[in-house]
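Onboarding guide, step 5: your first structure request.
Type a short instruction followed by the sequence, for example:

Predict the 3D structure of this protein.
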Amino acid sequence: MQIESATSIQLAELEKELSAHYERICQHELSLDITRGKPSAEQLNLSDNLDGILAADYRAADGTDTRNYGGLIGLTCARELGADMLQVPTEEVIAAGNSSLTLMYHAVVTGYLFGFAGNTPWRELKAPKFLCPVPGYDRHFTICEQLGIGMINIPMDEEGPDMDAVEKHIREDSEIIGIWCVPKYSNPSGVTYSKETVERLAQLGQITNPGFRIFWDNAYSVHDLGHYVSLPNIRSATLENDTVDSVLQFASTSKVTHAGSGVAFVSASSANLASLKHQLQAMTIGPDKVNQLRHSRFFTEFTTLKEHMRKHANILKPKFECVLEHLQHGLGESDLGQWEKPEGGYFVSFNTRPGCAKTVVQLAADAGVKLTPAGATFPYRKDPEDSNIRIAPSFPSLEELDTAMSVFVLCVKLASVRQQLKQAS
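The system replies with structure tokens like these:
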């Protein structure tokens, strides 16, 4: 279906046919949800052996009674797990509660109110700003928006953020104090940063203000769907460029074990960790060490975790294939959209024709299929092209996803044809 070359008569006939199909779908009163990347119950079941794994033995290998207060930076055994996931030394890791987002928020607030490693607090700048690769993760943008930190869109390509744009903005504006990065299987595009991109990011500390930090949200470090995809090590790259203070790395087991009761990790230089720990001392007497011990016993070594993630992949891969098959079969020979084919992570990024995303999302909602709101993958929820839609295949059953994607493809066609008809009139 190449609607650019269709006549008005052909478009009108097609719109009538699609509308009739759409009305029939609406009569089914569907209630399907593909809004967020939540693990399915089948995935969560993979970790149910966490329940009872301690068998009333609450002492860690170093003798720590995990039932009690203390242990600000987490159990050593939990920190070792985070170190394996991020490929960093254990001494550079803090193991915390269940949410890496909480750690990221804590880190941004630390930079904003107090500054890192003795540098100027961001709040003392006239207009502090973050660079935001787009499309990106909406919750990153919410943190900045809540604190009044400005955001600048940075286009993404197949190698990661447009580094020419990143470097240009940094050279022109000394009040850029951070950049959000989801370096492996980016949310939502699925892109994994190339070696050149990681090396150029590691060099940013040489041209930025000293308080600048890269927020390296490595949420999908072990979430391969098939073969393992290697991400260049940002810590090694910063060591080579003498910019080790410029990076804060984050990870968690939220999409590895039980999403609501995992363990989150932050890794950073000793100077950055000192800044984070100073504020943590005022916030908490220590994390949930019992849960950290459960995870350490569940994953006795990193190979155990990797085998566990292969089980996740066996559940997720057919769902991603379902999404991509619907897109290819329904839209592959058309000019109605473009999409990524990720090798891991939790999302498929779809771009409609400019100006159609909001209409597609609304049509789908009216037909009983909930999608992430159009614009959510951009700062301030403003997609300048009104084109990006994030598809989250993980939570629904395969049968539900199959139905949802049939509706989605229909809505893309209907929205596109109606737009073209309007433009032709």
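Each response can be followed by summary notes, for example: The longest helix spans residues 302-331.
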